[in-house]
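Exercise 7 asks you to align residues with tokens for two separate proteins.
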Amino acid sequence: MLSSSKLYVGGSINTRALPGARVHNNFVGCMRKVEFIADTLRLNLLELGKSGSHLIQVAGRVDYKCPTGETHDPITFTTRESHLILPPWNAKKSGNISFKFRTNEANGLILFNGGIRPPRVDLFAVEIYNGHIYVHLDLGSGPWKQRGSRRRIDDGNWHEVIFRRTGRESRITVDGFHTDFKTVG
């Protein structure tokens, strides 16, 4: 079960709240095609943010374009304080989230979804650490950290990340490279 009160894209208010993470700064870079899928719900998060939807809160400086302007529906987090606060990811049995991004930063928190309240410790996060993508997942039986990228992704090029979860089985795909894993408990 993964249920929370908020999902953060581009970082979070408190990056140190991610247990076991070595990254303590938000993502700085450009993202596009950020989709949120949980059971029967499907949302285009960037469109909701751009349109001023009440479902999304914007913190810090966020631009809905990339510096070169060659992509559609992008978002740029221009400062380390910038992030979006989205509706809860209530993916009790299954869920998918995917996005494309580019950055020159070697470290940064991209997504953070923490538990609703103690003792619930459900957690999902995606971070860049030393130029690689890592997924953090805790469904209540202990934390799990999985490297998802084969090559460094802090090269300024576009990269695609797809995360899928069904029960305790998960798959992280970065630029077509799949890593399957199963959480404990």
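Second protein for Exercise 7:
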Amino acid sequence: MTNNCQKSPEEKLKNEFDSQLRDHGQQLIAFILRNIQQHRLFSTEPYDVLNEVYLRGIKYTKSGKSIHNLIGWTKKTSLNVIREMSRKQVNRQKTSVDYNLFEYKIAALDAEAKLAQENKTNELIKRARKAFQELSDREQKILLLREIQELSWKKVGHKLALDGDKTQSDSTLRKQGQRAKEHLKSIYWSMYKEEEI
């Protein structure tokens, strides 16, 4: 066994630290615990702080410096460790809050854009329905049968004949359908321009 004169600074610190913990451990733990609670680090254990203080003590003595009042140095260093932990926790919380706020703003913007798009779509549908109602009954029938029910021109002619219209060729119906579409477009766009004014 070596005596204190031949021990390395780390071994001396370990022996002194162990001795001080035996003699003043309860006071040190109470001091550390009180500071942990004051800084709201409720998930931090006093022994985690003491371990960090011990590691810093080893690093300090390895640099060639000596600790003259180990209890005072331990209290001061443990308070510094707790303050650093508190700053890190505040920064993590601030970052988390900033990130959550950012996500909330993006979600709000998405919802707002979706609502605006839905409102615009609903408005366009209303306008299209209103324009459709401005068409003649025959134009409405032709467009419903051809565009909505997707019937062939032959079937469109057959359905119109069943409703009492005179029989017409496919090419005549096609021309009437084309004119009905153009009429619908012109009504729609004239309504659009009126709303802009």
